[in-house]
Amino acid sequence: MRFGAFIVLSVSAFAQTPRVTDLQRAVEEFKIQTRNLGLRADSPPSARRKSVNRPKFRGRIFENLRNDILDATPHELRQRGSDKNLLRRNQFGFNLAGPVVGRSTFFSVSYEGVRERISRSFLRTVPTTPERSGDFSATVDAAGQPLPLFDPASTRANPHFDPSEPVSTTNLQYLRDPFPNNAVPRSRVDPVSASVLPHYPEANTSVGPYFRNNYFVVSPETNTANGMILKLDHTVNEKHKVDVSTAFSNGFAGSANVFPTIADSNASDRQFASRRGSLSHVYTGSPRTIHTLYVEAASDRSENKGEIYPSYRFGDSYAAAGRANPNVKNVRNVIDAGNGLSTRVRSHSIRLATRWLHQQQHILAPTYPAGSFHFGSGLTSLPGIVNTGHSFASFLLGLSDGAETSAVLSPSYFRTDRYNVSGRDSWEIQKGLTLTTSLNLEVSTPRTEKYDRQSTIDPNVVNPTNGRLGALVFANRGGYGRGFQRTQTRLEPSFGLAWNPWGQNKTVVRM
Question: How far apart are CA 185 and CA 85, in angstroms?
Answer without folding.
Answer: 43
